[in-house]
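The pair is quoted verbatim as follows:
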Amino acid sequence: ISQKSGNNYLQRLHHISTTMKTVSHLFLLAAIICFSSVNAFVSNNNGVARKSSQLQMTILSAGGKKADFKEGSPLKNACAKLGVKPKYSCKKGDCGSCTVSVGGSRIKACVGKVPPMPRLKSLQEKGLEVKG
């Protein structure tokens, strides 16, 4: 092997090595950004992360009745306890006949879940109104 071709080979090898280091640094940087921003999508309560063992309750009200319900529990059970009787046809959320208004948001009672506790203190105290 001549001196000229040996130097050319070493230059290519150095270039490949430098490129691989750059790619690995970029990958590491992307991984750090992804994992550090995961917490941006996690809901917390007033800046304090809640433990999974804590039950978050939402107050729902209808027709003068008020009750606490676990966040994420079936909305159809909450409606039954409050005396709201939506009309059920398909029982899988396709027809929309069971749609109720919970705090102004329309939710299908047959497949919907109790929403999280609102952040406004006034709504936390008086509860979200359920209208069938």
Observations:
- Helices lie at 3-36, 75-82, 121-126.
